[in-house]
Design brief:
The chain is mostly beta strands. 0% of the residues lie in helices and 51% in strands. It comes from Amphiprion ocellaris.
Length: 328
């Protein structure tokens, strides 16, 4: 007999708007935290022990917050809003003060991507003012690194991920575009290394496993597109995954490389084995589109959580496949 689908271990309410983005910080010695960004401009910092919001940062003039992350420790928060601003916040010693803001000029929904290149030095990639442009700057100095614009007409940049390969000189960037194309950029050379047409529709989201050099992307269709990088940095399409219902908002891979989670427009979270893309579970709880998913970064695998944020203004937290279950 198959197991009945699990229920959330608990839910977080009171965000006051759709939950566009989630970010865990559970690896420090301190309290495990979950950061969420809402459609009403609020960033909630949830204490996962008390299951309450420890702090609410009202930023971005009430505009939708579409991405949140933290620099190194949880003392500096970085957020991106639909007010075309990226903001850095000082959270140390109970503060929530705005350190500085950066104007992106991008009217799309493309979330930023950040990469630590040395202790306390980061690269930040974001969609620029031009439709197809990706800008990269260094933080905290805000020194411009480069601007990446493809040669062909690919439409708006939809999603990006910066990463640092084990071999090779500098960082690479994966980008999904409105025409369904995926491009791999060499940031140092400011050149395209590879390009594939992954979807007939705009690429809504992508996630890339930097250890296994495999990635997956989603769109408004009923299919996830799987792909890999070969030794020459060429993107190679693999077998995709058919979905019951169309539309994926976001995907994430658990740090141990065993699970993939997808946030569905059909109100469901789907869990797959990352190795074989075998469907493992369908999590049903939300009453509207699921917009964001994130796995926690707990050091102890038994404490790992999956969080899902929905348009229904609730965050569900799940404990799944944490005891070394066969997820091949």
């Amino acid at each position: 007999m198959s197991h009945p689908p699990p229920l959330p271990i608990y839910t977080l309410r009171g965000a006051g708007g759709p939950l566009n983005t989630l970010h865990f910080s559970c690896h420090e010695e301190g309290t495990p935290l979950l950061f969420s960004g809402s459609g009403k401009g609020a960033i909630h910092i949830w204490n996962l022990n008390s299951r309450r919001a420890e702090k609410i940062v009202e930023g971005h003039s009430g505009s939708s917050v579409i991405w949140v992350s933290t620099l190194q420790s949880t003392d500096t928060l970085i957020s991106q809003g639909r007010d075309l601003q990226v903001c850095l916040w000082n959270l140390s010693e109970g503060r929530s003060e705005l350190l500085e803001s950066l104007w992106t000029g991008s009217v799309g929904f493309c979330q930023c991507s950040m990469l630590e290149i040395s202790p306390s030095k980061y690269l930040l990639a974001f969609a620029g003012q031009q439709t197809e442009e990706i800008k990269i700057i260094e933080l905290p100095s805000k020194i411009p690194v480069c601007s990446l614009v493809p040669e062909g007409k690919l439409g708006m940049v939809m999603c990006i991920q910066l990463w640092q390969p084990d071999s090779g000189p500098g960082p690479l960037l994966l980008a999904g575009y409105e025409d369904g194309s995926l491009l791999l950029w060499d940031v140092t050379q400011r050149s395209t290394l590879s390009q594939v047409k992954a979807h007939p529709e705009p690429v809504m989201c992508l996630t890339f496993d930097t250890k296994r050099l495999r990635g997956i992307s989603g769109s408004s269709e009923k299919k996830l597109s799987s792909w890999m990088l070969d030794s020459q940095n060429n993107l190679q399409l693999q077998d995709g995954v058919m979905l019951v219902n169309p539309g994926v908002s976001q995907m994430c891979i658990r740090e141990d490389g065993k699970l993939l989670a997808s946030a569905g427009w059909d109100h469901r979270v789907r869990i797959f084995s990352w190795k074989k893309l075998r469907p493992l579970a369908v999590l049903q709880y939300h009453t509207d589109m699921v917009l964001s998913v994130a796995f926690s970064d707990h050091q102890d695998p038994r404490q790992r959580l999956l969080a899902a944020g929905s348009k229904d203004q609730r965050i569900s937290l799940w404990s799944i496949y944490n005891e070394g279950a066969d997820t091949g």
